[in-house]
């Protein structure tokens, strides 16, 4: 699959799980920072970070869709850039700007998103990968994932608190049904 096809599949995956409309950008920002933390940790320790690059891209794709746009508009050909750790730090700066962009003007939001995508591509290249390869790995990891959207967060059926969350979810459905039934 090429990157544009992967983007469509990621957007459909998130739509099918109600993540785009069922969660808020702030919920996805929390996920974005979690995924970035894994990326920074693995880069710092010299470990394989392909899945982490892909995971950050997946969350950016979802957040962009929540804003009513497509991340495809922010793809550009970027070079390797400079020092890997400096690239990761600059990525962090742009992710924060994008995540809190609702408080900024639209142009800054779009510029930060474009720069973040370019920096992800640069990190991939500096590690000998393509961005497409990283997104493919992340998509393969999530494509069959099952879970529940709870309080704006997707809880996987493999998470240790899944049964507790599922029970709360089912109770909330019963309460809402009882509230509206005659």
Write the layout of secondary structure elements.
Layout lengths: L2 H14 L2 H4 L2 H20 L5 H17 L17 H16 L6 H21 L4 H12 L4 E4 L2 E4 L5 H19 L2
Antiparallel strand pairs: 1-2
Average pLDDT, rounded to a whole number, is 90
Main β sheet profile = 2 strands, antiparallel
- Secondary structure: number of strands: 2
Rg computed from alpha carbons, rounded to a whole number of angstroms: 17 Å
Query: How many helical elements?
Result: 8
* Low-confidence runs of at least 5 consecutive residues: none
Distance between the termini: 51 Å
Order of helices and strands: HHHHHHHEEH
Key features of this structure:
single chain, 182 residues, 2 domains, two-stranded antiparallel sheet, 8 helices
Provide a compact summary of the structure.
It contains eight helices and two strands. The protein is mostly helical and 182 residues long. It folds into two domains: 143 residues, no CATH class; 37 residues, no CATH class.
Plain-language structure description:
It is a single chain. The protein has 2 domains: 3-145, no CATH class; 146-182, no CATH class. Helix 4 (50-66) crosses helix 7 (131-142) and helix 5 (84-99) packs antiparallel against helix 6 (106-126). The protein is 68% helix and 4% strand. By secondary structure, the chain is mainly alpha-helical. The chain is globular. It has a two-stranded antiparallel sheet with strand order 1-2. It contains 8 helices and 2 strands. The chain has helices at 3-16, 19-22, 25-44, 50-66, 84-99, 106-126, 131-142, 162-180, and strands at residues 147-150, 153-156. The model has no long low-confidence stretch (mean pLDDT 90).
